[in-house]
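Self-study notes.
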Amino acid sequence: MKNSLPSFLNPPVVETALSIQFEPIKGFGNAHLGIFWSRHQEVFPKPSDAEPIIAQYEIFGKERNRLSTMPPRVRLGSNPAVRLQMTSADQSRMVQVQNGRLVYNWRRINDGVYPCWSSVQPDLLSYWKEFQTFVVECNLDSPKPNQWEVVYVNHFPKGRDWDSPADWTNLLPGVLGCSDRLIRGNLESLSAQWHVGLENDRGRLHIDLSHVLAVSNNDPDGEPMEILSLQLTARGPLDKGDDAVEKGLEFGHAVIVQNFTGITSETAHKQWKRQS
């Protein structure tokens, strides 16, 4: 599957996030996060705190029908637990850790080149292995992973990938219909979501498309630019086996790349220099 995936020399991806969710570890607290950062501060010298990410599960079958009738979960009251964000000096890479999740992020900074999957996934797995060892060294139970997640965020700036909203259907023909059928009006903006169940209940693909104003990572104080933002999130439960995490991430990556290629146009592929 790896060799058959499409690839681009200049893809529009601006951020990736690979995540492993695990059952909360009894006794694991903020002090452990500080110790974990101290072991990595040379590579990630910029620590910060953030609100913990609420656990997410892709549910299928009868259990999904039952949960669909329940109200959404919210966090009530104060929660002293935090999510540690360890950022590299150039701010292009980040490792996030909380009691229940480990995330590895890459962000495009200063027109940096996307490091490709063969580099990003091993980095996540390396920090995951280090975290597992660290938890055991702290005399706590080894983390039990229960969910994999892969996120790709793509930005299509106005003036580069499109000039007016009328161009959006040509950029994303796989998910957008013909805007010229609108009666007495022209398309100005949009926000849409699609949720796709994957084969054999192996996971779910979430596609989020929105028209927004955004500032550049390179110039956070600069003027906002008009972009079309496409986020693809693949998430699913883990199979059994020692390589379940790696296989889940590989599957999620393949699903995202194949669907991204399928919903975008061949004209755009030429601009992004498709290689295969």
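Second protein, same conventions, sequence then structure:
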Amino acid sequence: MSRVVISPPLIAAFIIAFVFSLSAPLHAQTPASCTFTYFNPPPPDADYGFSPNSINDNNTVVGEADGSNNYFRGFIRKSGGAITQFKVPKSYQTTLRRINVHGTAVGGYGNTSSTNPPPSVGFHGLIYTSSAYATLNYPGSNSTVLTGINHFNTIVGTANDPKNSGGTLGFKYLNGQFTAIRYPGAVQTTANAINDNGVIVGGYKKSSAPNTWFGYIRQKDGTFKGLNYYPNDINSNGTIVENNNIHFPDGTVKSVWVNGSVETALGGINNLGALTGFAYWGTFEYKGFIAKCH
């Protein structure tokens, strides 16, 4: 594995080749009818944290797994079931957050066990392919994580805000240019995903009080729509996943639950409607899944 460290203006040339609900959803939920394909965390990470975060249209899943040696590694699961892992050398945590249809994944790495986006200091944005990785940090920020990439290699992420101590901002990166995303009136903003239409979803909070996060949809023209839940991912049809819920464009909300689990969480959705996430049964027993629901 080679490492490619590229300054922000040149990164576009290279790439051409936690989350939880914080308030009740807008609409009543009904249970979804789902067919699940399960997979285990990759060894030696079978007994600790496991987070499938994204699924592309080829049904490749990426995420992170917490190993028994207390290192967090990114993983890639191909549609046929083969799983490989990746950790940036000398990092404590490597996470892969999204992958596009070209096989380019984004995430972050650093020497912290925090999974909040981003950790307080020293986290770096990561672009990863099967042959190389690159670092992309928001200018002037001391911590960055990349959280989304679409078909056109437009990247979104979250960084500590260099203009607001203690605050975070979302951002979009395209053709060597960063665009800051700050929800109006918010003290903190995150960007969590971008679809192929350029629509971004993320979260914001307007006070420093804990558990006051809400969500937003940002259209390609920069206009915002507030949400009363914290979105994880959005596909090109406008379907959003958060916690264990699917929010359809017509306002229908359906919940997903794995029978017998004590927790079911959705990480991502692709343009064909396939979902990925994890189920937890307690005593460090995790399984990832790909689900088809209606």
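Instructor comment on the second fold: The domain at 2-28+38-231 is CATH 2.120.10 (Neuraminidase).
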